[in-house]
Amino acid sequence: MQPLIDNARLFGQRPEEFARLAEGQSPQVLFITCSDSRVVPALITGAGPGELFELRTAGNIVPPYTSELPTSEAATIEYAVEVLGVSDIVVCGHSHCGAVGALVRGDDLTAVPAVRDWLAHAAPRPSGASEDPCVAEGVQSHVLTQLLRLRSYPFIEKKLTDRQLTLRAWYYEVHTGAVREHRADTDTFEAL
Q1: What is the pTM of this model?
Q2: 88-118, pLDDT tens digit by residue?
């Protein structure tokens, strides 16, 4: 922890670099990804402060939309689309994902009930080879399911119909740093 504290102290000693950020934000992209500490959106994309609006959830899960019981995730997505006016949403899954791996393998999660109940939002259960430590097929299938879930949000559907929004499915390889994007015409994830 101490190296992180030391960096935070130094970070705050450069206020002139951050003064413009007080004027507001206008990111063009909502980046939805896993909470996994190995996935760092700004590092992957080279984005600076104010360039990405991020939503990080266990397993990059987009919960079902409901206006009766809104979730923090739905509020973040709505704010990015309706207030900030992002033009792109990226759902980025990653190799070696513990959440998706647990789903693919059908792990018993009774010891972690909050995790178990959160992962239930991933339905349907991602398919893939349970012995693959990368869980590539499962993660890629899961990311596409989350894009479908996003399409069920009424404000997303409207922006898509009006061609004001693009949805993207990415797969990040933790072990190589490679990023692949889903191509609808071939139904495959290919290098960016």
Answers
A1: 0.92
A2: 999 999 999 999 999 999 999 999 999 999 9
Cα gap 152→64, rounded to integer Å = 8
Mind giving me the DSSP string for the chain?
Answer: -HHHHHHHHHHTT-GGGTGGGGG----SEEEEEE--TT--HHHHH---TTSEEEEEEGGG--PPP-SSS--HHHHHHHIIIIIS--SEEEEEEETT-HHHHHHHHT---TTSHHHHHHHGGGPSPPPS-TT-TT-HHHHHHHHHHHHHHHHTSHHHHHHHHTT--EEEEEEE-TTT--EEEEETTTTEEEE-
Residue 93 φ then ψ, to 5°: -90, 170
Q: How far apart are CA 130 and CA 101, in angstroms?
A: 7
CB distance 148 to 89 below 8 Å:
no
Pairing of strands 188-191, 179-183: antiparallel
Residue closest to 27 by CA, chosen among 56, 63, 51: 51
Establish how many alpha carbons lie within 13 A of residue 135's alpha carbon, considering only the half-sphere containing its beta carbon. Answer: 24
